[in-house]
Structures are given as C-alpha cells and as structure tokens.
Amino acid sequence: MTSSPPDKLAFTLPSGRRRVTPARFGPESRRDRLLPQLIRNCVLDDEGQQCLQVRLGSAEAANPAARALLDTEAGTALHLHRVLDDTEYAALFPRIIGYEPDAAEPFLLYAAPRGVPAARTHVMAATDQQRLTRDLMLALCLLDDQGLVPRGVSPATVLWDGARVQLWGLEAMTRTGRPRSPWGRPPFCSPEQRRGEGLADPRDAVWSAAQVLYRLVTGRPGPADRAPADLGEHRALDRTLRQAFAARAADRPTPAQLLELLAPGAARRVRLTLPADEERPHRDAFEEALRLKRQATAARTGDGTGAPAAPGGGEVLCPYCLEAIQLDLGKLFVTDSRMQYKPLDLAGIGNPVRRTDIMRGAVQKCTADPDFPEHFIPVPYLTYGRPLTVAMVGQSSTGKSHLLTQMIAAVTDGGLEPFGLKWQSVNPEQHARFVRERVQPLRSGRVLDHTAALGLDDFARFVESLLITDARGQVRPVAFFDLGGEDLVRTDAALRFLLGVDALIFVVDPALALPLPQLDHVRERLDVEVNRDGDLAFGTVLDRLPKNGPYLDVPAAMVLGKADLLRFQPPVDRWLARPPAASIDPAPIREESRDVYGLLRRHAGQAWLRPFDAIRRCTLHIASATGGQEAHGRYPAGAGPRRVLEPLLALLAMHGLIDVPGGAEALAVGEAPVLETVPWEEAQRAGGSGGSSGGEEHQ
Fold first, then answer.
1. Cβ-count burial of 84 within 10 angstroms (0-12 exposed, 13-18 middle, 19+ buried)?
2. Rounded Cα gap, residues 392 and 482, in angstroms
3. How high is the pLDDT of residue 46?
4. Residue 474 has pLDDT above 60, yes or no
5. Which residues pair with 29 in a beta bridge?
6. Which residues pair with 642 in a beta bridge?
C-alpha cells in the first residue's frame, strides 16, 4: 500500500447512508483487458478496513457503455446484499461496502476477495471438485431465483479458497428473458450467448459452469460448441454434467435440477431461506383499485377523454381562452425579422405549394373572447380536427421540463415510428426555437433553467406542439403545456386552461416523496425535505378539473422522475434498465404501474398516489430524463434519457392514436375477469341454490 497522504473518500453504504473517510490506495491494474474497469487495493483509514476498489477513470467514465457496466455491477451487488446479507449464502458473492456511481470517476468498494481465481489452478483435487461444483450450482440457483443470468462465469471469475466458492463477474449480469448479446470468451460463453441469439436463459450459465469444471478437472479448455469427446473418462463430470454441454439451452438442465442432483433438498432450502415477499399487500391494493375503477360508471363527455366536446363545423377549442375558433384567413399573421407579428395577405400568393408552406408557419389571432389577453394560434393547429393538449404537473424542481424536453426529443428522433405514428412540427419556427433553446443544451449536458413563472395578467401557453399522424393516416395536433410549480398551485385564471386539457402527466420527485436514506444527501444538497402530504401541485390541479362521477376521466400518466437516483432500488432497477418496447403491450404497462404504485404506497404514502386514486384511467411509469445527477450546472456524463417516451405512448394509446390489444380502456384499468362482470345475485340464479357451482360455471 502506498505511503502517500490518504485521500478523502465519500461514498454511499448499502444501507443508503453516506460515509466519508480517509483512504489509501495500492497500485492499479485492469481487471480484464477487454473491460474498462480498473481495480486497486484500498484501506479505509477510519477503521483500517481492507477492501477492493473497482472504478472507471475519467476517460472511461465519459463512455455511457462503460458507466452502464459499472451500474450493472453495482445494482447486482446491492440486490444480492439486500436478499442474502443475513444468510449463509452471502459468502458465495462479493460483499459490497459502498458505491459512488455519479462521480466524475465512479467506483465501487468491495470487501477483500476471498480465495484465488480458478484460472490459477491447473488441476483440482477430486474432493475440492465436488465442493466447488456444489457451491457453483448453489450460486447459479440463487441467481436464477432472482431472475438473473450471470454471463461472465469463467475460471477468472470463480474464486476458490479451499472451502467455498466466491463468484465475481457481476458486471456481466443480465435478466432472464432479455435479448442475448455477445459476451465472454469461448468455450466459457454458451454457443447462443457467443452469437447473441435469442433470450437470456439461466441454462446459459450452466454451460459456462460446466466448462469451468471441465477445465479444473482436465487442465485444458473444452470445445466451444459441444460436449468434450473424453467426457466419459471423467465419471463424476459425465454423471452430473453431460447434458450441461448440450448445444441448445433448452436441452440443458436448470441450476436447480443440477443442485438437486448434487445436494438433494438444497434448492428447496434456498427458497425457504430467502426473505418473504413484502410487496404482496401493495400488489393486492393495486388490483383492488383497478377492480373498483372497472366497476365504476365512467362519466365521459365528448369523445370520452374527459375534456369538453369538440365544437362542430370545423371549429376547435382554443387551448388558451377555451372558446370555439375556426380558421379565418382574414386574421392570419407571420413574424418578421424582429420577431414581431405582421398581417398575412394571401391574395397575392397564387402558387398553391408556396401558399401551403407559408400558411404552415402562420398564426391566427384568436378573438373569440374579447376580454381575454391577446393570443395567437398556429394555423395547422386549426386545420386538422380536434387537438390533443397534454399538461405537465408537478412542483418546481421536479424535473418536468427536462422530462418533457427529452420526451419531445425522443419523438423527433423517430421514437414513435415503431408504433405506426409519424410526426411533423405544427409551427416550424416555434419547433426550431424549442430545439435550439431546450433540446440541444440538454443533450450537450447543460442543466435547463427553471420554467419562468407567469405574470399576474399572463396565461398558460403551450411550449411545443406537434402534428401526429396515426397508422390510419389521421392527423392530430398535440400541444404540451409546461407551467412552473408556483403557477400550478395558483387557483386563479392562470389555471383556466386545465378545463380543456386532454391528458395529464404528473411528475413525482423521489427526493420529495420517498424517505429513503440513499436520497438524504440529495435532499441536503437541494435543501428540500420529504413531504408526506404529497405534491401540492397535484392537489390543486385535481381540484381544478371538472368532475362528474366517482373518478376524473381525463387520461393521465404518473411518472416517478429522476429515477436514476434510485436506479439500484427495486423495482426501479428492474424497469429503468429495461430496453424500450417496440409495441404497446398492456400486460407490462400494468405490471410497471403496479410496481410503481407499490413503491409509492409503501414508502411515500397514499397522498402521493392521489392522481391514481382520483383518475379512472391512469398509468404509472419510471423514467429518467438525464440518467445522472448534475454537478456545477452540467451532467458530467451527458444527459442520457431512459424510458422518457413510455408515458406519452400510454396517453396516445388511451386517446386511440395507437391500437392496443384488448382496447385502450384495458390498457389502464385491465380486463375484467368473467366473475367480476357478473353480479353476485345473477351468478347465484345461474347456478341454482349451490352458490359455489354457479361460480365455477362462470369461471
């Protein structure tokens, strides 16, 4: 260990608490020449604790793929710590001491490794082989129970101390069912994994483990795509692992099957030792809430969106004054070089192509309400039928503007195309300004300024609008409102626009909602506290909306924003790393909604779920607009959005712009089971006097 003065090291403990300590470091090396992580021994001087630091240098940390690997490793280590910490199985994996993922040079700290890599052993004694095989299958069985597939099992990551295995290589972990991508070196990566074909399967790791054991028994690697020709000469291996060398995962045994063969009853003991499911009550509460929504009579107006019905005769609702308006060629304006409005005279423009192009950039002065402040509407907003208005809701500093900016950027990047939708700007000049002032700075890593508050005589204006064309060729303008938090808690005319809004996106700030210890240092830095009473803006907006029946029927999405702050916390870890979907499937959307509902209900309280409880069709989502925390007005690794488009996709589906299996209604509230749709008295009559037989008939 170096004798230079100790450095100050600040990091988060697995408990979520922060620790700052002097630290001394040894020489650095690369863990694997193909991987970006660096490793070095470390002593934490406040306790003299010896550990191993895994880190990224500043150059590697600028690479999003390298940071993703370190995040995968940290998330896996923390997950295993939560599940196994107080069990006999914890020793099978590295023990994490702390982590700091958002620093300029992010790192993890582990307790000192136990044992030496199997790669340093030429041939292992038979008694050691037996114990190592049992431990390795036990580790794979534990990972399988958690839905994890270790892609990095090799002689370099299997450590042995003469008594027990310790399995490293956590950066190579993936989830069962995720698309395979090439990883590892032959023969230790399975044939399917090497080719990146199909979906990750726990039996991929069975192949890898079998190859490690063959190498320890014979002192040489096996073939990369089939069972070794001399396997029959090694009776113990042949008896237990012959099928593990099958070329297809489907033909290999599972980790639990192999563990049962090696140690009867061990797989069952594993399941009994793991902690009980603490989310069950919250899942049940979610399903009960959906059942009540399905049974409620939807109080709909107009087209069922909850907003006032669209005027007829080519008229649309002005999104500002909420009066009916239609295209009037005598009230058109365009902007001059000084960005001032000047009247547009179309009389001298005979070329239809040029005329259409000019009108696309024009605006019309709305005079429907002479007492309302002067306002202008883009002409395309008036020519494509009823517009759809979307409002972002949340207190200041919740990340609404960053989320909306990345959402629209994802649309303009073609994110809607897999769903059969195309986009075009309503007003090219307005869109170019939005891209120049918001999208480009955020993508370059700059933190956006807070949304400016409205003046006393001002009114809510949409910040961006797009023309969305669905798969049937129908075009609909979509306009986005993004008000400052202080405006959303006002109850005067500034919120009048809400009476005509078609969809809502409620943004939950985890630092304000969730009293989790890993968020304490964020709250300290931002000088905020947990609010157990929910977001004040949520309540103000919900109280302002017209209600007719037990639920509001304007479609809504709740978003747990800034989810990168909780990217190692279940269930956020599961959803934030999930690749974007290419189609709308109601099942995973409801599953994500259920998980977010459970997280908020368990840790934040019912007040933070008020939008879900008040609105009949409301989905819940996890998203991060930036992928990391800011430092000195910038995002050190750039702003990397995750899952920002999903809330908008759900709203578009609920409005019928995207076709959904089971229908748009089922997307948010689910499909009622047969028994749920049959009144109890009717079920009894259908089944005669035997109530139970009637129930079975309707199942």
1. buried
2. 5
3. 81
4. yes
5. 39
6. 624
